[in-house]
Design brief:
- The protein has 8 helices and 6 strands.
- The chain has helices spanning about 20-40, 60-65, 85-90, 115-130, 160-175, 185-190, 205-220, 230-235; strands at about 5-10, 45-50, 70-75, 100-110, 135, 140-145.
- The protein is globular, with a radius of gyration of 17 Å.
- Strands 1, 2, 3, 4, 5 and 6 form a 6-stranded parallel β-sheet that branches.
- The chain is α/β, with parallel strands linked by helices.
- Helix 1 packs across helix 8 (about 230-235).
Length: about 260
């Protein structure tokens, strides 16, 4: 039995448009989903959908939210919370319903003290308002802190990718359990998912073995634009970074690092 697609809605750009943090994270999620589905012979395609253009149409918003076996929303963090365009997307969803669809959220460009928890909470509440059955990986809200470490800004760390991998595997579990009730414990064991993961947290060497190659793929476009094809091929997507200047209201987006503020 083939499942409906697993869908990742990504809202790019983030606070640093030239880095495409949220798109790279969404492609990472897609790569981890594909790896798990292939390894365990789960017939589930993966879709990465650029959600910003749907803001122009309630029908487009409805289409983006419907028909998935499991849904993830990838949101940037602006200032101390949600970007305006993510909130506008969900304003257009008022009155729609997606009862029982499993759904989750992850955020980039912030940690729990820089507003990501607000972006996550806003988006979880919006999904719950549509009747979706929201979930996380164990007790973890996945916030990828791209700007608050000693590493180069914009780089994913091993721990970022590990949590993204575990959330992707949790997505696959929910997609399958919807079609095989009662199989959650068996699939969790197969996928290496534990709610008390923090008791046996993998060390750096173990994480590197699981996600080191993925981290390289996700970070490579920061310094080499020619690396996008490798990342998108792994994710199974044909996604070029969006040209923000062609979108409505381009002056409302932050400028890439090193450029003057946008006008308009």
């Amino acid at each position: 039995m083939k499942l409906a697609p697993a869908r990742i809605l990504h809202f790019s750009p983030g606070t640093a448009t030239g880095r495409h943090d949220t798109l790279r994270a969404a492609l990472g999620m897609a790569g981890f989903l594909r790896e798990a589905a292939d390894a365990h012979a789960v017939p589930c395609a993966v879709e990465v959908v650029e959600a910003y253009p749907a803001m122009a149409s309630r029908e487009a918003v409805a289409s983006a939210l419907a028909g998935a076996s499991v849904l993830a929303v990838a949101t940037p963090t602006y200032a101390q919370g949600s970007p305006w365009y993510v909130r506008r997307f969900f304003e257009l969803s008022a009155g729609l319903a997606a009862w029982g669809t499993p759904a989750t959220v992850f955020a980039t460009a912030g940690g729990l003290h820089t507003g990501a928890e607000m972006a996550l909470a806003d988006t979880f509440r919006s999904l719950q308002g549509l009747g979706m059955a929201t979930f996380t990986f164990g007790q973890k809200w996945v916030a990828l802190g791209m700007q608050q470490r000693h590493a180069e800004e914009g780089r994913f760390d091993l721990v970022d990718a590990w949590f993204l991998r575990q959330l992707a595997r949790t997505m696959l579990l929910h997609a399958w359990v919807g079609h095989e009730p009662g199989s959650g414990a068996r699939w969790a064991a197969r996928l290496g998912l534990e709610t008390d993961y923090y008791r046996r947290f993998p060390d750096e060497a173990a994480m590197d073995g699981m996600v080191g190659t993925a981290v390289h793929r996700m970070n490579a476009p920061l310094v080499d634009p020619a690396a996008w094809p490798e990342l998108t091929a792994w994710a199974g997507q044909r996604k070029a970074p969006p040209d923000v200047s062609s979108w409505p209201h381009p002056g409302l987006f932050p400028a890439p690092p090193g450029e003057p503020p946008r006008g308009g």
